[in-house]
TrEMBL record:
This is Methylthioribose-1-phosphate isomerase. Substrate binds at R51, G52, A53, R94, Q197, N248, K249. The record marks C158 as: Transition state stabilizer. The gene is mtnA. The keyword Cell membrane does not apply. It is an enzyme of class 5 (isomerase). GO terms for biological process: L-methionine salvage from methylthioadenosine. It catalyses: 5-(methylsulfanyl)-alpha-D-ribose 1-phosphate = 5-(methylsulfanyl)-D-ribulose 1-phosphate; 5-deoxy-alpha-D-ribose 1-phosphate = 5-deoxy-D-ribulose 1-phosphate. Keywords: Amino-acid biosynthesis, Initiation factor, Isomerase, Methionine biosynthesis, Protein biosynthesis. Catalyzes the interconversion of methylthioribose-1-phosphate (MTR-1-P) into methylthioribulose-1-phosphate (MTRu-1-P). Also catalyzes the interconversion of 5-deoxyribose 1-phosphate and 5-deoxyribulose 1-phosphate. Part of a bifunctional DHAP-shunt salvage pathway for SAM by-products. It comes from Thiohalobacter thiocyanaticus.
Amino acid sequence: MNTPPDSIRAVVWQEGELRLLDQRRLPDAESWLRLDTAAAVADAIRDMVVRGAPAIGIAAAYGVVIAARQRYRENPADWKTALEPDLEQLAAARPTAVNLCWALARMRGLIQCLDGDPVPALTAEAGRIHEEDIAANRRMGELGAAFLDGVEGVLTHCNTGSLATGGFGTALGVIRQAWGEGRIRRVFADETRPWLQGARLTAWELVRDGIPVTLLADAAAAHLMHTGQVQWVIVGSDRIAANGDVANKIGTYGLAVAARHHGVKFMVVAPTSTVDLGTASGADIPIEQRPGEEVLGAGGRHIAAPGAAAWNPAFDITPAELVDVIVTEAGVVERPDRDKLAALMARAAA
Ligand code: MRU
């Protein structure tokens, strides 16, 4: 077996500074931003400098370190009160991915117990969130790849790789692992309109790591299945509700419907930080609406007929009954439902 390729990191904490690879500019430019306020981190999350559910949680955790450092310097006696608006600003940056609030809740839990200079303990906790995410991705890679024996083709959507996580990736981690183990012969990726995470980011990652990738327009996915070229659709998630409904990048639901129709298996790969037992079903998951200009334009240029309006939900909900397997670092759940997910999360917490 070859070692799965894994050369990319997009969120870096170095010498007390948060550095983010600016994903808006890929693949044309590899430019890094240095962020030194919570407001700048919140803006970077909202504006998609950093995106992908686990990655925005990790960036927000480092954002808490930056904010706490500033508030403690300004007011060592009452820094926790002064920090509250920073935490709220970070939490409000994007609504759908639960990993953002999950990471902030973890940092908050630690803040409650701290006396004196908070920076060393908070830096260590943010680093743990980051490292645990990479470890979870590696474990999910192994668990997910085990489902893929002698597979002719897989299709993925959006970007779920090193750019979207601490490193290695969720769905793309499974694909990296399966490719390294020689379990799959071809990788297809949807271009993922309107933001083109597939064409710009997934293709960049895979080409860079030496994994051949074939891009297709989102609208070609059902035909790809109909012509028998893929046996699995493998995607990530921004939030999995208690009943197993899955929020993910817009277009995922359509893939799941088409996959079931064609007898193609549907795998969701997400760490337990994405599972939200506090949200009963997909109907309760907030769906982010993004600016219409993302749909009306392409490559920074307005292309739609002047006067046309746009509807631009960034995510959709795939009902649990269309999911064949959810892979987490704590184990896999086939044909997910409320009881199986509750049991998985209880095992993970034990
Ligand atoms: O809008 P984005 O690019 O943040 O959306 C990302 C996705 O939908 C991913 O599939 C999801 O976050 C899982 S990534 C590990």
